[in-house]
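So, who can interpret the following?
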Amino acid sequence: MKKELEHFWIGEAYGGSQDWFLEFMMRKGGCAAQTACDSALYFAKHFKKTKLYPYNEEQLTKADYVSFSGVMKPYLRPRMSGVNTLALYIEGFGDYLNDRGETEVTMTPLPGETELSVAKEAVIFQIDHGYPIPCLILKHKNSAFEDYVWHWFLLNGYEQYEDRLMVKAVTYGEWEWLSFEELWDTGYRQKGGLVLYGQIEKERKKKNETNSN
């Protein structure tokens, strides 16, 4: 089974890129802001939440996206330790949503300590219902994931096999398929996790509680 969300292109870039940001610290540590920018633009374009993107979501330009990053910066600014917890992202992006009068988009943390089977089910459920998933990876034992160390990015697709789950990771205006099992198994105690968007997450939890009783 395979599912990919319809994302967006800015020129030849698949989503935005923090490499475009004008300030050095935003290029170096603006991955949380960029993930929030992509999320807001996705909701504006595909959920008709047009007040979340202050430019034309139907005619996307790099210049507008870079300007948008300046709007998002105060909410998820770069800092010495980075936006290194799910709570910091939820607080920052939540403040942005509130300031735009958006009350329907909710966020629920799924910590990296969560059992793999539960995390896989959440990924499939969220993407099946049209929600991209912000993902935070801190340290990782596998050098194959060095580009994702101490980094925020989006998951917006999956392909399920009998013995593994592949996920589509989106960052720096590009995408690639990764093994979710390997991505989730960081090998360190300090972990990131996922942020689950939408009222639909409450229904998922309610369903799981019903099934367990």
Summary: Strands lie at 2-4, 9-10, 13-14, 107-111, 133-137, 151-160, 165-171, 174-179, 193-197. The mean pLDDT is 93.
